[in-house]
Write a structure and sequence with these properties.
The chain is of the alpha/beta class and about 575 residues long. Helix content is about 40%, strand content about 25%. The chain has a seven-stranded mixed beta sheet, with helices on both faces. A six-stranded antiparallel beta sheet has the order 6-5-4-9-8-7, with helices on one face. A three-stranded mixed beta sheet has the order 1-2-3.
Length: about 575
């Protein structure tokens, strides 16, 4: 096969199948030389032919099957047969070992030297498959990071076993050296978490081992198991990095540290808590560098963006962004502050913790041990001649009262609350002891936000919409002929989802609504006015639109609660 491949030229192959002309080949050859590409890449970049057409032509001519890697079977030991550097150099990846041969997906089966090198590396016969470049590039970091994590776990286990007589005294070991296996293991886990887009990394001890799980797109995904005796050393390393008490294992502790991963500085918040099998730790990746749909519009669709701009235009008052933990509230606030700082005004924030450093904004970090609480910091900021104040979270009645006082004395305050929908913020503030008349006079805008998982484009499937689905969504067969979902693949960790999109419920509090709030009108009246007179779309309705558009699933739709009538 290899000798036969040497006799075939990609240009002749594409001309044989009628994909390109002689003139196009001449142009592509010049382009290839200028940009240091393979000819197959040149004709694709020039738009003469698609990559799939090139792959299919080579597959048919050479008798090599074409394979979609998102549905292919992989064995991690088989993947490891090819060194990662070689896999990246030749855009190839081993998949499985079968009948004494290695199944290998390669983007260029005409590259004789690549096939020769790979064969020498694995020291086994090769069974070749043709796969797209994008598929292979996506698969390489996924499977090789698994190999690297396993190696790090094994090295840490061996190191601990050789040095330690028992698990009970493991925390007395000095593990500060950045070259130790435990440090390498923790670094590997953090890099994998960041590269996977995880928001949290869970290290959970159990009776026989410890589990590592990552929260990706809002769902927990199993990543790896580590030996039971390695887990305490990893926790100790975390505590050292976070300036926590390594001797104290009976009470919860909280801390944070900064680390540079892939030239991105992350602030990682660490929380430990004692369980029956030892200390569990959760690492939260505090970064706002994740990709956002409609980023230029604060992650909002045009209609909601226009409403939000009207809210931000107020010179004073309170704007609350609401939603559960992990719904992207802080990211939305930061994007609003980025817009505000373009003006010649004084902007200050009080946060716990400061998740992203914003140039031109005076950011204050809460430090309860030093007596700098939300309340104390907010009082001090009031004496700093601010125009806009960002309060990371309104957690208690005192913070709420000070925020209201700031709003009615000429400042614009933006903060977050944990409520199920936008108008529920009114009830929450009143529960905190803020009188209705002050709520009505201070609040100028309410934004409820959720993050909805998007269907993975690599494994998206569709089926005919059923009568129940149409009835549930309140749409016709013509509006939604099919319903889409993800089958699960290596790109999405088998979840069927990849990435998230924000949905919003926005209320611009006008004079009439302020009066209704001040006079303690029933919530049902407020909802009726917001829906009928102000055109408020609920979170459920926004989620329904995404299902109809084929962006998300019925499963995600049902996670969004109904707005109370």
């Amino acid at each position: 096969m290899a000798e036969q491949n040497k006799q075939i030229r990609i240009g002749d192959l594409l001309k044989e199948y009628g994909f390109v002309t002689d003139d196009q080949i001449e142009t592509a050859l010049a382009y290839q030389k200028e940009h240091n590409l393979r000819l197959g890449e040149a004709v694709v970049e020039l738009g003469y032919v698609s990559e799939i057409e090139v792959m299919q032509a080579m597959s048919h001519k050479l008798g090599i099957p074409y394979i979609h890697l998102d549905t292919a079977e992989f064995s991690v030991p088989a993947v490891g047969r090819i060194p990662r550097a070689m896999a990246e150099k030749y855009t190839a990846i081993a998949m499985t070992e079968e009948d004494g041969a290695i199944n290998v997906a390669i983007n260029d089966p005409l590259n004789f030297y690549a096939i020769e090198d790979i064969g020498q590396a694995v020291k086994m016969p090769l069974r070749l498959y043709v796969a797209s470049k994008v598929d292979i590039i996506n698969a390489i970091p996924h499977y090789y990071s698994e190999i690297e994590a396993r190696a790090a776990v094994k090295n840490a286990d061996q190191d601990i076993s050789m040095r330690m007589p028992s698990v009970d005294v493991i925390n007395t070991v000095e593990i500060g050296d950045d070259s130790t296996p435990v440090v390498n293991l923790l670094n590997t886990l953090m890099i994998r978490g960041y590269n996977s887009g995880a928001s949290d990394l869970h290290l959970e001890p159990f009776d026989n081992d410890a589990k590592v799980r990552m929260r990706v797109d809002g769902a927990l995904v199993d990543y790896a198991d580590i030996p039971r005796n390695v887990h305490p050393a990893v926790i100790t390393r975390l505590k050292i990095m976070s300036n926590l008490d390594i001797a104290e294992k009976r009470v919860p502790q909280d801390g944070h540290f900064k680390v540079n991963l892939d030239n991105v500085e992350l602030n990682i918040r660490v929380s430990t808590i004692p369980t029956v099998y030892g200390e569990k730790a959760v690492l939260r990746f505090l970064t706002t560098n994740t990709a956002i749909d409609h980023a230029g519009h604060f992650g909002m669709i045009d209609e909601d963006y226009d409403k939000f701009l009207n809210i931000l235009a107020h010179p004073n008052g309170i704007i609350y962004i609401t939603g559960p933990t992990g719904s992207g509230k802080t990211t939305t606030m930061y994007m609003a502050l980025e817009r505000f700082k373009q003006k010649p005004i004084n902007i200050s924030s009080i946060e716990d913790p400061v998740e992203k450093n914003l140039h031109g904004i005076n950011q204050v970090q809460v430090n309860n041990q030093a007596g700098l609480s939300f309340q104390a910091g907010l009082r001090s900021l009031m004496r700093q001649d601010p125009d806009i104040i960002m309060v990371g979270e309104t957690r208690d009645s005192e913070t709420a009262s000070i925020s209201v006082s700031a709003a009615i004395t000429g400042h614009l305050v933006i903060s977050t609350l944990h409520t199920n929908d936008a108008l529920a913020s009114i009830v929450r503030l009143e529960d905190m002891g803020v009188p209705p008349y002050l709520v009505g006079n201070s609040v100028v805008g309410l934004v409820a936000q959720r993050l909805v998982r998007k269907i993975c484009p690599q494994c998206m499937e569709e089926h005919e919409a059923s009568e129940i689905e149409l009835l549930t969504l309140g749409v016709t067969k013509e509006e939604m002929p099919v319903v889409k979902k993800g089958a699960g693949c290596h790109v999405c960790n088998g979840t069927g989802y990849k990435g998230r999109i924000a949905i919003h419920e926005i209320v611009l509090v006008d004079k009439k609504m302020q009066r209704m709030i001040a006079e303690s009108e029933p919530m049902s009246k407020l909802y009726e006015y917001a829906r009928k007179e102000m055109g408020m779309a609920t979170l459920r309705e926004r989620a329904r639109d995404l299902v109809v558009q084929g962006i998300t699933t019925m499963e995600e739709y049902f996670k969004i609660g109904d707005t109370v009538d």
